[in-house]
Amino acid sequence: MKIAILGTGCSKCKQTMEVVRQAVEQADVSATIQKVEDVQEIMKYRVMMTPAVAVDGQVKISGRVPTVDEVKSLLAPGR
Amino acid sequence: MVAAHPGGTGITVPRSVADSRVAARYFAAGLLALGIWWLVYRSLPAYSRWFTFSLLGLAPGNRLSSAVEFFVFDGPKVLLLLTLVVFAVGIVRSFFTPERARRILAGKRESAGNVMASLLGIVTPFCSCSAVPLFIGFVTSGIPLGVTFSFLVSAPMVNEIALALLYGLFGWKIAAIYAGTGLAIAMVSGWMIGRLGMERYVEEWVYAAPARADEGDEGPDLSWRDRVHYGLNAVREIVGKVWPWVLAGIAVGAMIHGYVPENFMAAIMGAGAWWSVPLAVLIGIPMYSNAAGIIPIVQALLGKGAALGTVLAFMMSVIGLSLPEMIILRKVLKVRLIATFAGVVGMGILIVGFLFNILL
Q: What are the tens digits of pLDDT across the range A36-63?
């Protein structure tokens, strides 16, 4: 599973990174976390608000810092 | 209805019934909270007098007691107003997303589009760190450049923090003047940028980005419960972040209120000093994150003879023209367009400043 965190490096993006890392740890799934900071790269995901979280190329959250539980539910199998 | 089925396990409540029950409970809790809020707000003058003159035992009429009374009255008052306004705006904003704003604007022609974009800028949640993706999202879906700028000017300038502080410290008239002139600047400057045909000063790769006119994704349908939580989150996030600035600003304001002599500011920021308006705009550009702390200070200056137009110009420049946002926008705009943007908006602010200094 590939998780991408989209954001140009504002404080909310860093919080999101931390939340996702915790969620991955707690959910005990194997996932790679990648930070996307380049604007042109971010725009390829077609988001209008950062920070955003994309799982396997699909944007799941945008414009806010998610909670750990929310990210865990994204990581759960069968979704 | 089904819920009252005797002996049944009773979990078969239809969703709409459950929803309206939740809504009723939230409504009752909201009324109660509003009642408490109102009682506290109303008792502030009595409380600040009691605190200053009875508890601290200060003599009325001297500098210290006047400064202390100002602080213990205005501090809680502004924070209370801020909480209420941020919550209310949070609820309104839960109905709007940038995606929805984009869909509304996509079919609009220029002039009507500028008006709509300025209005949407107020109610759409926006953070200057998202300015770039939002800009690209707008222009690549066919929204004219000028209309996009109307949105980008109005979104930060006419914001809930500024309005709550202005209402709390200056009254509704000034708050309304601020919102009205701010909107006018957003509409006119966006329209002008559109007239100037600056499209070629947008970085080329922006228009090369994949066209995405209609994504249809406007976020999930929220229940009232979600919206209340959205509002509470906004309070936690915004009030939690700005309250030290507000209190610091009010503390400085209290010192000015108590210790700076009457009419001290008339020479520097008065209506007679024409150069004070451009100076106020220039000083305001690099100040951005401290908008919450600036307004209480400015209020105290106003009490000491500063002119309203100068003060308005200063606040608009602090809130609406921000250096960090311009640096962020450099990724998608060439310097010439950023300069035009700052110039046109700055001119608008200057006109507002001079106008009010002449009229009032």
A: 888 888 888 878 888 888 888 888 888 7
Beta carbons of B129 and A10 less than 8 Å apart = yes
**A30-55 burial, b if ≥16 CB within 10 A, otherwise e?**
ebeeeebeebeebbebbbbbbbbbbb
Total-model pTM: 0.80
Chain A: residues touching B (Cβ < 8 Å): 7-8, 10, 12-13, 39-40, 42-44, 46-50, 63
What is the rounded CA–CA span in Å between residue A61 and residue A59? Answer: 6
Instruction: Give the separation between CA B350 and CA B54, rounded to whole angstroms.
Output: 46
**What's the pLDDT band for B296 if we cut at 50, 70, 90?**
confident
Q: Is A63 annotated as catalytic?
A: no
Among residues A8, A9, A10, A25, the one annotated as catalytic is: A10
Which two structure tokens, joined as six digits, stand for B89?
């705006």
Token pair for B223: 């229940």
> ipTM of the assembly?
0.77
